[in-house]
Please model this.
Amino acid sequence: MKLLGIKVGNGLGLGKCLFVDTQLPNINQGSATDLNEEITKVNDAIDKSIKDYEDIIASLDDEDLKSLTEFNKNVLISPSIKKEMENIINDKKCYGDLAIDVYFNNKIKQLESLDNNYLKERAKDVKDIRHKVLSKYYNVVEFNPDNLKEDVVLVSREMTANVLLTDNLKYVKGIVSELGGKTSHIGILTTSLGIPSVFGIDVKNLKNDEFIFIDGNKGFIETELTENRINEIKEKITSELELAKELDDIKEARTTDGYLFEVSANTGDLTELERISEIPLDGIGLFRTEFLYLNKTTPPTEDYLFEVYKSFASKLNGKQMIIRTLDIGGDKKCPYIEIGNETNPFLGYRAIRYCLDHKDFFKTSLKAILRASSFGNITIMYPMISSIEEIRQANLILEEAKQELKNDNVSFNENIKVGVMIEIPAVAAMADMVIEEVDFFSIGTNDLVQYSTAVDRGNTKISKLYAWFNPGVIRLIKNTIDATKNYDNKFVGMCGEMAADPLGIILLVGLGLDEFSVNINTVKKTKKYISLLDKKETEEFVKSLLSLKTVKEIEDRLSKFAEEKYGKFY
Amino acid sequence: MVAKNVVVKKETGLHARPGSEVVDLAMKFQSDINLKKGDKVINAKEVLEILSADINFNDEITIEANGVDEEEAVKALEEYIGS
Model:
């Protein structure tokens, strides 16, 4: 049985289901007689927990894990923690577990009450700490991966980081959790450890010891596996590992006939800053600015935005960084941005539509980008463009921003390139006119497909209709790419999931896309796929697809071509 | 008592790692150390207080220390937070 969840990434895994939730006794609500004994027990529990964290820190190599564990330890070495718990015990004449519970619940409530997603995530860490201290108080043995003897997939309703704080994870082949998202702490953690993970799975139907196949890239798990299926999966995992090994030394996306394509990364997440210089990417093809706006109660300042852009640009050594102006609205909401209630937010007041109405707000964001353009090869991209008028209007505001910086003697790149996202079918259809107004295109396939097929892919009843290879969608993409070909100094990229899809890559190489912008974790893989293709041959092949009328025919032909060209990597 | 104003130069503010590292640093000193942001007073040895204070990049805060090693404490924290 296949269960769909949220993809957190990190590849494929196979192992026996193991629930890791430790059951703690109920908190004792009664009155304690020996208060001093309770105080001693609580102090002991805190000291033992600190010791645990210190041992873990000493045994870890991974910097992210270390810093998370340091945080946990620092919560417990607080100068006031023991005194506060002692006061609770004396006031309430209660047992130690109630004092521990009350103390941490107050802290958790405090963090959750703040309008800041980052702090809400930290509240979960404090829940982990509470769990640890209570386990020590009760003398309950926590799950310990050191005791594992066979491959497992760890399962929990709400996976906690405690479980993973060890360097001994060789038997842990996957993580399944009902709660948590890709950017939750546990999500970031499993990514940094490289453990295949899928969240959002209803775990109550899973049984201890049954085999689970987990695909973190596609976001599903499979259960009730037959022996045959298990063998198939094992083969698949082996070839995936081989691919990963061969990817280690890949540098560029050069086709077998010597043509070089650009593969860059989609980012916007401060936690990925350090990885920029570790991955052989050709630039940032999509810098999503919304992360800098979302986790705040007030708009970010121009200085703050500038510093962030500058720090990313400085890691790129002159490689291009395309900064997309704020793409808010739709499913992304911000407390200080008044969008109003909409019956259809995806067709509503979002992105450039909001920005053009809030000129000063928009100008601030443009000035930050302009200032950063002195420190790297930065370009500007407007999202959700549906008409030429919007481009012209945005450019007028950009000119004002430039003029104001000039007046203040602030330096910036006066010839900064400006491009637009092609994600609305109307502009894809008139791409030849739009290209006259801009320096580049970036095709956002996620929205382009959704808007041109009129399918919400979250809706499982119709999600099958959401298809990149719908001939109508292919025509829009081809039209967009073709429009740029009359200009030597203009280019077209793609920043949707299609750009990293093995079959999508064949189509796009054949259509002549210049730049593939993909999730930072798939940069190497995308380069590998491109390097296995011959550009001229692929162009010929793709031409032969253009007369096919159904998604199925196109996919079948692409699959066959992929098997031939990618071989074991497919 | 020693006090000094400093502009926060940590890009992510005193959240995440920097918040925790301020505590590591503060713990090395015997003095009582407070951070002041507006009228909020935050104990620099309490990581949860620091987080909840929501101190961001380019905020101006005051570092105050009181004790035997107050000079060194303020200097060390100023160097860390302001660079």
